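pipeline: protein-struct stage 2 | run 1193 | Bifunctional coenzyme A synthase-like protein
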Amino acid sequence: GSRVFGNKKQLKILTDIMWPIIAKLAREEMDRAVTEGKHVCVIDAAMLLEAGWQNLVHEVWTVVIPETEAVRRIVERDGLSDAAAQSRLQSQMSGQQLVEQSHVVLSTLWEPHITQRQVEKAWALLQKRLPKTHQALN
């Protein structure tokens, strides 16, 4: 991470190699799920929009938090300095850019049970958007 997140040229080299491979694998997994009768596939991809994979999905759901909280969590989770965490964030789309391209926006700023309620409500609304033949997915 330290080699590529602070160096846009190195990051581009890495993403140009990896993103097409990961997209192909994701598409194969989704195709397999459809053949197994699944109607909803969830892709957990932090860089989905940056990679241009929105054409692989019907909806984009984004989780946002304030930048200060994101830095705190990166420092805590990865043991990075504030500056390294900030550099990592700056290599990603801004929260505003993500929200503008998303169908559903959630926040994990509050207690876990609040986030759980947000997700359950968003899932229930998704069920209503699905064709009638696919709505028994709860």
